[in-house]
Design brief:
329 residues, globular
Length: 329
């Protein structure tokens, strides 16, 4: 299996203790010293690129918003996500996804420009508990594309979050994309309930809608249980896609956690049926400071199209973050 350059960097960083950036100046040059120097050079490059991205965001921000005496923190972010997956009986696959968010704080933190690589199928799936889009087979309609959109925050409170966005999806036939999403959350004892509704429309494939219900309950100090139910309707084929996810998250310490997930997905055409089951473990670790992250995902898949025969796979993923670091890491 040929490794990508990003994965090579991941393997190098995995041998370095978190936060180690200094080397003694009175010792002869050695492999650890060269490694630390390489990491410092990479960090300097990252800082320069991050500064440039934030400056670009600020220049756009000045166009949309007025100058203010107190400037808010700019959360502009550029993320690269590289996945290397080995599926039993298939050839190794490597994919690269990007996500760019240009924050515009002068607009009262309501407006942001988002550019991301995704697929039509991933539109409804990208808010799953764990990102499976690189390690699971996609349906035939999942065409890789770049989507650029302006997102506007209509309402935000402790219970409500309502956003609208409009933009372009760039494929062989560019199309207009619009989305409206509302999310409500509430607390009932130790249970937290979140309900979200997203309506999306593409100029070529018309209307779609996703409803998501999420129940969350802590299991002690280091574990969390989450049950998520999804229903997506697509006007083009007049189909409903249903999915259920049961996940247990385990905190392993600073910058590390495990997730154990079981899922089932199905459709209502030609009749209501289950299309696939999955069982997998998701391990995430912060490799270096707060901008290099490693994911390891062993997964077992059962698909109706393959007679529900077990199909194991193994993925090693690397995420690089420029600009602001992801919330929650």
């Amino acid at each position: 299996m040929r490794l990508s350059p990003l994965l090579g960097l991941c393997l190098i960083c995995s041998s370095v203790p978190l936060g180690a950036t200094e080397t003694p100046s009175d010792t002869p040059t050695s492999s650890p010293d060269l490694l630390q120097q390489s990491l410092r050079l990479a960090e300097q490059t990252r800082d320069r690129l991050s500064t440039g991205i934030v400056m670009l965001s600020d220049s756009i921000d000045r166009f949309f918003g007025a100058n203010r005496e107190i400037e808010r923190t700019n959360r502009t972010q550029l993320r690269f996500y590289n996945s290397n997956t080995l599926v039993y009986g298939s050839r190794p696959a490597s994919t690269l996804k990007t996500h760019v968010k240009l924050d515009l704080p002068r607009t009262n933190e309501r407006l942001s420009l988002v550019i991301e690589s995704n697929s039509l199928q991933q539109e409804a799936d990208k808010e799953k508990d764990i990102d499976q889009s690189n390690v699971l087979p996609q349906r035939s309609e999942g065409e890789t594309a770049i989507t650029s959109s302006l997102q506007y925050l209509l309402r935000q409170s402790t219970r409500w979050n309502v956003r609208a966005s409009a933009g372009l999806r760039l494929t062989r036939r560019p199309e207009v994309v619009t989305r409206l999403k509302a999310r409500h959350q509430m607390q009932r004892g130790h249970w937290q309930l979140r309900l979200s509704q997203m309506i999306f429309w593409y100029s070529s494939t018309r209307l779609g809608e996703t409803t998501r219900l999420e129940l969350e309950h802590p299991l002690g100090e280091q574990h969390l249980f989450r049950a998520s139910s999804h229903v997506t309707w697509r006007q083009r084929l007049d189909t409903f896609e249903l999915s259920q996810y049961l996940t247990v998250f385990q905190q392993l310490g600073a910058g590390r956690y495990l997730a154990y997930q079981l899922s089932a997905e199905g459709e209502n055409r030609p009749r209501l049926h289950t299309s696939r089951y999955t069982a997998h473990i998701y391990f995430r670790k912060m490799l270096y400071k707060d901008w290099i992250f490693l994911d390891i995902v062993p997964l077992m898949l059962w698909q109706r199209s393959q007679g529900f025969r077990p199909s194991p796979s193994f993925s090693i993923n690397l995420e690089l973050v420029l600009g602001a670091t992801p919330a929650g890491h």
